Known about the structure:
Blueprint: E1 11-14, H1 30-35, H2 37-43, E2 47-50, E3 54-55, E4 67-71, H3 78-90, E5 94-99, H4 109-116, E6 128-130, E7 141-142, E8 150-152, E9 159-162, H5 177-193, E10 197-200, E11 224-225, H6 227-232, H7 236-251, E12 254-257, H8 267-271, E13 279-281, H9 303-315, E14 323-325, H10 335-339, H11 347-358, E15 363-367, H12 388-399, H13 404-414, H14 461-473, H15 478-483, E16 485-489, E17 496-502, E18 506-512, E19 518-521, E20 526-532, E21 543-546, E22 551-556
Parallel strand pairs: 1-2, 1-15, 2-5, 5-10, 7-11, 10-12, 12-13, 13-14, 14-15
Antiparallel strand pairs: 3-4, 6-9, 8-9, 16-17, 17-18, 18-22, 19-21, 20-22
Helix pairs in contact: 5-7, 11-14, 12-13
The structure holds 1-O-alpha-D-glucopyranosyl-D-fructose.
Amino acid sequence: MKKKWWHNKTAYQIYPKSFLDTDGDGIGDLKGVIKKLDYLKNLGIDIIWLSPIYCSPLADQGYDISDYYNIDPRFGTMEDMDTLLAEAKKRDMHILMDLVVNHCSDEHEWFKKACEDPDGPYGKFFYIEDYKDGDKLPCNWRSYFGGPVWEKLPGHDDKIYFHAFHKKQPDLNWENPLLRKEVYKMINWWLDKGLDGFRIDAIINIKKLLPFRDFPADREDGLSSIINMIENAEGVGFFLNEMAEETFRKHNAFTVGEVFNAKEEELPLFIGDNGYFSSMFDFEEAIINASQKGGFNAKDVTAEQYKEAIFRSHSRMENIGFLSNIIENHDEPRGVSHFIPEKDLTETAKKMLAGIYYFMPGLPFIYQGQEIGMENVRFDSIDEYDDIATIDEYKVALSAGLSEKEALDAISKISRDNARTPYQWDDTKNAGFTTGKPWLSVNKNYCKINLASQITDPNSVFSFYKKMISVRDNSSYSDTLVYGKFTPYMKEVKNLLAYTREGDKKLLIIANFGNEKQTITLPKKVASVIISNTGRDAITDTNIELLGYEFLLCELYM
Length: 558
Ligand code: TEU
């Protein structure tokens, strides 16, 4: 594996709509991001991924783009974007935008032109079909946000178009070389402007299984999961390689793919030395207990399942490339609420979870608010939720027979809005996020959990993150933490999550993922404790009694 400039860096995801609002409209903006660059630099962040800020009707919060070349006025102006790029460069920080090219918005001019003339050139930018035998759909796939992937084409009673996500997100037809050319032109336009790279949205979906065909129905609605199409479609690599060749490689751009369902044998092609992307997210832990019936049916994740998932994905990456590691993002519940039982959700446990994922091989991403331990939100009514996926999941739960209360309880655990409530800066009104009315309610716990109360406290979750980042980025342990060999340790011991990283030093990462003490024998004597979440500063014996949710990063004698 070739060494790259970004290997020892830490990346941070900003969800601009919920980060910081500087103009009082209740929606976060680019000026808010600029204002907080110093804060992020101080935390130790080098790479920032911005969720979409292009012009958009915001049906899916910007993942439905109506103009790839402009900034949505609610987020700011192109001038703000230029300022952000320049200010980031001054601080030696790198900005990534979200590249959403599986689909655009139904308000994009390409789609409008396709509706005007479905048989014309823009009709071929999309998947526009006729009904089969008068009224049948070309296939029975269920869109990610519920209902069939087909929708009537506006202005044409006899035609339908394909959307893997919401009906306001028509899929782009990657089989059409003219469409691909337009996409590459746009990517190069941004890279020429000085953007450092992209996080690439839902990219596996660009290859469709053609001709369209049915799969056995898996719910009462008579539809089948769209995952069948992903698993059976062959040939996405051609598009990905062409895109990399035409755009990213020419600019030496940094890219991270949102890749679900990658086939194991393809991993080197994706993120090997000359892969389609620099890195890709590891979602093994995000999909634990995912249920075919719907999100409402997902069971709580156990420590053993978590261990199994993260060890599995990293064991298969050895010597291939760098995965990007997360505990949460804008599509997931808050990691601390999802992976730690509610009754055990303390600052100690939050730090433990942080330590485990952060020192795994790969590139760590921190999602906004994670560094202060932000938790899931609990809304009292479905009306308080904004996210289209959550609203669909709620309906699925009701139609599966759950009462309104049960449905609300179930979806509150998995809702994407858990991660989308405004950033909790301080304990003033609206957590310091806005002087107006926030577009989504602030989590009521903001008086207790906020940055202002943590930033100068050496024992806060924030200070723990800051310490982890500086140890990995810039210390005598960096090389081992970034490149050292990863080996699981005592994997079979329940609620123990431990691994070694071996390079020019031998490091042990060890966590008691449960609230009961446990005594463990260490592989070697401890030379020094580098990071602890309990204040333990030395270990003299090779037998150690770990406290509940204790975490340690230590150097062992070789
Ligand atoms: O998410 C993609 C998404 O919904 C995945 O959960 C899906 O399971 C995967 O693509 C399967 O291959 C992205 C964004 O992160 C999300 O916010 C958007 O809503 C979505 O794409 C549509 O743009």
